[in-house]
Amino acid sequence: MTEDHITRTRFTVQQYEKMIATGVLTKDDRVELIDGVILAMDTPTPRHSAVVNRLHDQLYQLNLASVLVRAHGAIRLDDYSEPQPDISIVRWQSDYYASGFPEPKDTLLVVEVTEFALSFYRDVKLPLYARTGILEVWIVSLLQQTVDVYRAPSEAGYGETRQLRCGDKLNALYLSDLSLMVESVLG
Predict the structure, then answer these.
(1) Start and end of every Putative restriction endonuclease domain (predicted)?
(2) Which residues neighbour 15 within 8 Å (Cβ) at sequence distance 6 or greater?
(3) What does the pLDDT look like over 65-117, one tens digit per residue?
(4) What is the C-alpha end-to-end distance of the chain, expressed in Å?
(5) What is the pLDDT of residue 109?
(6) What's the CA gap between 172 and 147, in Å, rounded?
(7) Which of 4, 52, 93, 157 has the most CB atoms around its CB within 10 Å?
(8) What is the 3-state secondary structure (H, E, C) of the chain?
(9) What would be the CATH architecture of the domain defined by 44-186?
(10) Measured on CA atoms in the order 39, 30, 41, 149, is the torsion positive or negative?
(11) Which pTM does this prediction carry?
(12) d(Cα 75, Cα 7) in Å, to the nearest integer?
């Protein structure tokens, strides 16, 4: 069979969640649904885990009003995508989203931390976040020692992009109390 004749199945969020509910996929599988494709997530290195945990603690300690700070929580972007960003800040919901994962309208900030897969985040996940209306995304690159900030989402991508380095201050557009130094994020 030639590649031209291969049929690919694009999974919906409902099909993906059913695979999880029935045990076809488990937490040990470390996967996420991106544009209908079930993709394996990188196994986090100790440094990656430390940065995510440190940032989660810093954000939690800021005691941001009317929001929830989530680590590795799924966001339902559309009918075909349910990524699990390293950190997300979502609008407060009293049931902590037990009734359903947050959607783009609920999401104020997504943070992705990467040590070795920067192009995947920039080329695959970032356009998806922009297309579905995620207001702000930070991509923390451990190798480059940078934080790329993306704002003003549209179908074509993000209209505002900044790259910050140690010595620069990170401020979230929709969270006025959130202000961190880049070096405190990078460790």
Answers:
(1) 14-181
(2) none
(3) 789 999 999 999 999 999 999 999 999 999 999 999 999 999 999 999 999 89
(4) 50
(5) 97
(6) 12
(7) 52
(8) CCHHHCCCCCCCHHHHHHHHHCCCCCHHHCEEEECCEEEECCCCCHHHHHHHHHHHHHHHHCCCCCEEEEECCCCCCECCEECCCCEEEEECCCCCCCCCCCCHHHEEEEEEEECCCHHHHHHHHHHHHHHCCCCEEEEEECCCCEEEEEEEEECCEEEEEEEEECCCEEEECCEEEEEEEHHHHHC
(9) Alpha-Beta Complex (3.90)
(10) positive
(11) 0.92
(12) 28
With contact defined as beta carbons under 8 Å apart, do 92 and 67 qualify? yes
The structure tokens 């109390």 sit at 177
Give CB contacts under 8 A, 24+ apart, made by 169-174.
170/138, 172/89, 172/108, 172/109, 172/136, 173/135, 173/136, 174/108, 174/109, 174/135, 174/136
Amino acid sitting at position 151? R
Quick one: CA torsion of 139, 142, 147, 152, rounded to 10 degrees?
-10
